[in-house]
Amino acid sequence: MMDDLHSFDICPLRSSSSLFIIDRRDRSIVTATDELFDMLGYEASDIIGTSIDQLVQKTRGKMWRALHAKGDRISLQVCIHHNPLQTTTELDYWLVRPCQQVVCRRIPYPIRTTTILLLSPVGIIDRVYHVSKYERHGLVPAPAQHQQQLVGKPIMAYIHSDDVQTLCGQLSTVYYNNEPSFDVRWLHQRDDHEYQKVTLTATKTSTRITCVVERVDTFPTIIDSIQQWAIDLLAYLISQWQQSRRYLLEFVDHATSSKNQHGWYSSVVQAVKSMYPPDGILTMLENWVDRVKTTSQSSFL
Length: 301
Fold this sequence. Notes:
This is PAS domain-containing protein. It comes from Lichtheimia corymbifera JMRC:FSU:9682. The chain has 301 residues and is α+β, with helices and mostly antiparallel strands. The chain folds into three domains: 91 residues, PAS domain (Beta-Lactamase); 102 residues, PAS domain (Beta-Lactamase, 2-Layer Sandwich), CATH 3.30.450.20; 77 residues. The protein has seven helices and twelve strands. The strands form two sheets. A six-stranded antiparallel β-sheet has the order 2-1-6-5-4-3, with helices on one face. A six-stranded antiparallel β-sheet has the order 9-8-7-12-11-10, covered by helices on one side. The longest helix is centred in the last third of the chain and has 39 residues. The two termini are 45 Å apart.
């Protein structure tokens, strides 16, 4: 039964890497993740193309049972979502978790270099490449360990739950000859609190989706923040400078207005004025701060 209580991107089972993709027309298994094959003891050729009803059956309430290759029954939690990637109207995504499983099985994978992911039409990672300036074609297959971490898993298992809707919506546009580029949070730990910002650019090649994943460098952001802080501080100091100068000059002028017969009062006025730069310099500094602020704001857009 379709889960109407929540969407795919906020599904409690979404962080699990266990996923069936089912053809709604005949309920046949289109593909599944490696975790499901391992969990149930089957090879891909054993179950792909067969009916999901032969493998998984609902018992009572929200409980399901799957038939293990050895004949045992495994209790499951299942959430069924219709066409979350909006690529076709005929596919259902079954998110599956064994009832005894209490932790996410996503293997941590931080993005340290530009990474190329080849996705199946339903969003499963098929191949992983790294960009290398030392190779003639610029690409090298990711090390075996990295392949094992990513291949066979849905890409959305590595995307922050708040960004999955963005991911699905953007990936669906590649079928209209678009090449979307967007920022998402890539999870490199076992929960949504540990992530890094990446830019993902997607294109369609043949029957696959190619995703270029680039780490967003946070260092320029830190520099921009420091620069903005320095500009605000300078603007504040100029403002305080002008106010204190104006106050002291008004005070001295008032004090000397009735005692201008004493020549030393004029010396005090000149001394106070000499403590501050001329009005022209302050105006020049104000104009410079305004120009820098305008330039900084336009560069962030």
